[in-house]
Amino acid sequence: MASTSSVFAGNILLPSCSKVSGTRNGIIRVDPTPLFDIAPTLFMQFLEPLGTTDPAIEAAWDYWRDDWREDLVKCVADLSPGMIRWGGNFTRYYKWKEGIGPANKRPWMHNLSWGGKETNRVGTHEFIDFCRRVDAEPLLGVNFMSDGIEYFKRTTHGQNRYGTLEEALEWVSYCNDPDNQERKKNGETGPFDVRYWQVGNETSYTGKDGFGLDAAIIHTREFAKAMKLRDPSIKIIGWGDVPDVSKFKGNEDEKDNEFWASKMLGENGDLLDMIAIHMMGIYPDDARSLTGFEYFKYPEEAWNELLELAKIADYRLSKLKEILQSIGSGVKIAVTEGHLSLSPYNTNTILLNWLSAAYHARTMNTYLRHADRVSICTGADFFGTRWTVNAVKLPVPGGESYLLPIGTIMKLYKRHTGNKGVKISEFPGELDVAATRKGDQLFLHILNTHFSSPVKIGLHVDGYSVSSATIYEIAPKERLAYVDDAHHDTFNPVEKQIADPSELVIQPASVNVIELHLKN
Q1: Can you give the residue range of the structural domain that contains 460?
Q2: For the chain, what is the domain count?
Q3: pTM of whole model > 0.85?
Q4: What pLDDT is attached to residue 286?
Q5: Residues 6 or more apart from 445 whose CB is under 8 A from it?
Q6: 16 and 126 both lie in a single domain
Q7: Are 346 and 460 contained in the same domain?
């Protein structure tokens, strides 16, 4: 008999995977009736200038050609994000006017959160150009009175980086007014047509240094109302997360750590189109036994631990959806940042490894299941040279940009996802499954959560037969497989035609999309 052991993840006792080689059996049954729309912006990426912490923007600009790096544009176009957001903590001290006009006349700025200096070589024009090249919807985060942090009115450098409502309104006009003379003078005759704008970035996380909830509600209303008067076609995203995400995991007293969304929408629901949260602070509690490189020493335990951590995303979304339903709000949810927060900070090498797929694929399936409410989500911080929480790795100039595991999974899902959510009525317990539909195409998004055992399944679609079936499979034989600057394509999906949908094997620790063509 195979032996078992246990490992602690927070207050949850997880069984170590048994050394089982036998194939499990089951059926996936789908009710293909469309239940809700899936937004084309669902799988987005998030871009923030990160200074010396992770030289994302400066490393992405080719100063020899004075343009975006060609390898990066090619890689991101392949990733195919539905939206790209410009924002983050950087917005608290960002002055957008410093990033327009002749490049050689733009002033540099201190990157007050992430260290070093920003040249402003990449500003509004360059960001919009990048979005257009990769066919992504732009989302701009405005400087929301520095989220109430008074320090930015006079920094240690003697500068006033505090954002104003007037600056936000001028940015809306610059981007969207067809007759804006300043934009035309800077070489863009037509409007940028930026439809999505976010007001406030992690405002509830600032504690005593920033706005409290009441002040955030008042100023959000001022911004949203005035911005929509300036351009009634835009969609405004307000802030609605809890004050301390690290304590919102479903196993603690949360009565003093409630979502801002309820009161924010109670006062401003007539002006806000979405409410934003960030899927941050997701890491094991101190009681866990695995740290650092121990993830690689005990891969089965690591796999199980990451599966459990992914449940936090489902818990948070479920709680927020309950709140929205209780107040009768139809506002959508925007998860405009999110990643797995393992130590060391944003650089844990497990995120280069296939073990991280346990968290990433389960979380992406969670977003698909909640896509009746979630219109925007991400699992990464986009691109950079150092952080492993990115979707895209930027190697030294002359190298080729490539996708990290989360990038590969998001690419797979984005390219093979329907526009309607449907119900999975039966599935084996070892599989994490979500389903979407587009016309006569049905997509099954499947993670085999079992580390060592395949699962043999039959596929059944209520009321339909299957005319053809294809599986896109990521199933590395080596669980410690990885990507790096010399190994870009480790996790490229393998496309296979399915001869018999009633008898299909889902490999252990694999991520798959099965595409079915239906007929009556």
Answers
A1: 6-35+423-519
A2: 2
A3: yes
A4: 65
A5: 361, 364, 365, 368, 413, 417, 433, 434, 435, 436, 512, 513
A6: no
A7: no
